[in-house]
Structure formats: structure tokens, C-alpha cells
């Protein structure tokens, strides 16, 4: 049976068209560029996300992460997954096991750390119990457009058990970010960039202040009050 035409946007959604495009225009084992993909699906929003949806359905599409011989702009269509253009196949999703490359990609993206508690694989929790084991959890996430998507995240076995019913709300977080002051936003941006939270001068001073003897605390307190008095 010949494959349906990938150009036919009246019959097929973008994910199905992308699958058909890979089969007819690229072919298993071959490399394609992001620009070629975007060119084929000109004007179609979120084509990259639809390619990711195919990965959830068993399609192996490698990027430079999995295949260092690829250029930054290149991806390789390695292996066909579910034939999503056949009615009923497109929905047969996520219940299936993750592929090895999905697991590897998620752990690499997460720096091989539990995103909930920060522990690394084989590290001790410090409670005398067994060492941490990392695994991949599926997390329901509400996207800015209101739809719900299942995304993958690295978690240790301990956190994973607690986090099963968790659902993230990206638009709610985005509106909190919007409400931050300039200074707060700068601090957050720095933590995000470093993927860790640096203690600010303010926090360091506060921590140090708390440990001082009373006489020294009084000196610092007076200095702070002086400074704020001068400015106001
Ligand atoms: Zn954890």
C-alpha cells in the first residue's frame, strides 16, 4: 500500500505529515537538516515538537547528542516507529517503555542529577540507607496554550515515588516570573544559567550576621540602619 501524501494537510495532522515526510523524503538512516524540515513545513508552528512526539511513538531520530558525527543543524532519521498514519496508531502512545536513547537524552539534558533533590547516581542520601539510583519519570505539564503534555525528567527513585501524581503548570510559573522585580529576575537568570543556586551577597551577609556575638551584631545593625537612613 502506498503511503499517504505528506503534503496533504487537509487529511493529516502535523505529526503524521512529519512521519510521512521522513519516510518519503528522507528515508531511514539518512540525515536531514532543521532548515530542510522547516522549509518542508513552512508556516507550520511547532514542527520540532511534532518530531519529538514521534520519538514518543518509537521513532528514533538522533541529534548531535546521540550521534556526535552530526552537525548542530542536522538530525538523523534512524528508525521508523509506530505507523501513526494508520488510524488508531497515533494515540498508542507513552504507555510503551522508553527507548534507550530517550533515557540517555533525558539524563544528559538533566546533567545526570535528580531534578527534584539534586542527588547524583550512586551518591549517598546521608541517612545510612542505600545509594541513589536515577530513573526517568514522566511528568504531566500544562503548556502556555493550555494543552497537557507528558515530558520526561530525571529523578532518583526516592523522589520518583513521591512525585507520581505531580502536575506542573508552566503558565502559572510564567506569570510569577513576569511579576518579579528586575533584581529578582537577574538572580534567577544567574541560577538558571549555572543550574545551581549561588548564595547572594545579601544571603551570605545575613547568614554571617546571625552567627556573630551580640556586640558585633549591634555594630552591623547600626551600620545597615545608617546606610538606609542616608539613602532615604
Ligand atoms: Zn531525588
Query: N-to-C terminal Cα separation, in Å?
Result: 79 Å
Shape call: elongated
Strand order of the largest sheet: 1-3-2
Rounded mean pLDDT is 87
Q: How many separate domains?
A: 3
Class per helix and strand makeup: alpha+beta
Record field, number of beta strands: 6
Present as ligands are: zinc ion
- Poorly predicted tracts of residues: none
Layout: helices, strands, pairs:
Layout (H helix, E strand, L loop, with lengths): L13 H13 L4 E3 H7 L6 H10 L3 E3 L11 E6 L20 H10 L24 E9 L5 E9 H6 L4 E3 H9 L3 H13 L6 H11 L2 H18 L1
Parallel strand pairs: 4-6
Antiparallel strand pairs: 1-3, 2-3, 4-5
Bound molecules: zinc ion (ZN).
Zinc ion (ZN) binds next to strand 5 and helix 5.
Describe the structure.
- This protein starts with 13 loop residues before the first helix and ends with a helix.
- The protein folds into 3 domains: 1-93; 97-180, no CATH class; 181-231, no CATH class.
- It contains 9 helices and 6 strands.
- It has helices spanning 14-26, 34-40, 47-56, 100-109, 157-162, 170-178, 182-194, 201-211, 214-231, and strands at 31-33, 60-62, 74-79, 134-142, 148-156, 167-169.
- The strands form 2 sheets. Strands 1-3-2 form a 3-stranded antiparallel β-sheet. It has a 3-stranded mixed β-sheet with strand order 5-4-6.
- Helix content is 42%, strand content 14%.
- Helix 1 crosses helix 3 (47-56).
- It has 232 residues and is α+β, with helices and mostly antiparallel strands.
- A hairpin with a 5-residue loop joins strand 4 (134-142) and strand 5 (148-156).
- The site of zinc ion has 8 residues, from strand 5 and helix 5.
- Zinc ion binds at residues 114, 116-117, 119, 155-156, 158-159.
